[in-house]
Amino acid sequence: MSRCPDNSEWVLWAADEVSPDRRRTLELHRAACAACRRESASVARGLTALGHMDRAVEPRAEALASLRRRLADARAEKAARPSVLVFLYSHRWAAAAAAVFVLAFLVWTALPGAPVTHMIVFKSDAQVQEDLAKITVSVDMLEFAEGLAVTEFVPAHPGPAQPAAPDDMYMDEFDQLMDALQAEMDT
Fold it and tell me: Contact, 88 vs 95, CB < 8 A?
């Protein structure tokens, strides 16, 4: 044999679980190798010790009674407290902080003159359609105004050169156009 057998082979040898040919080979090697003699003897002693062990060790009656009593107490304690209270108790600091926050918010909103933080308004379908129409008109006017972006005043009738119109003039014309469009939409 060119190499020493590993521990699992000595376990099989000691348990008499190897073929007769393999057993002869292992015994020949064991006779020639001192390290393997020690290893095989150690494995054989370990298997013998395991065979003498009592595998069905019963726990003491006192230990079982104590364990059953503790489990019954834990079940009774859990059944006595509702789960919401258990949750709040386990998160008592977070629950206390949330309660203080809610209380402060309620006091702040109940004070006279306190600002209204939000208000829910329900609209009818006709009101919603009217609002959508106004938004559409506003978008159309903005798109139209974008197309009117003129950087230089060009007179309608050619004549003598006129100085460039001031910026206010364009804004006035634009405002007049927007007013006319709005009046047309309202009618």
Answer: yes
Give the pLDDT confidence of 65-108 residue by residue, as tens digits.
887 888 788 777 767 766 676 677 777 888 888 889 898 888 87
pLDDT at position 183 is: 78
* Confidence category of residue 151, pLDDT binned at 50, 70, 90: very low
Does one domain contain both 48 and 71?
Answer: no
Q: How far apart are CA 28 and CA 42, in angstroms?
A: 18
Q: Residue 5, Cβ neighbours under 10 Å: how many?
A: 19
Query: How close are the terminal C-alpha atoms of the chain, in Å?
Result: 112
Quick one: DSSP state of residue 151?
Answer: S
Task: Decide if 43 contacts 7 (C-beta within 8 A).
Answer: yes
User: Into how many domains does the chain fold?
Assistant: 3
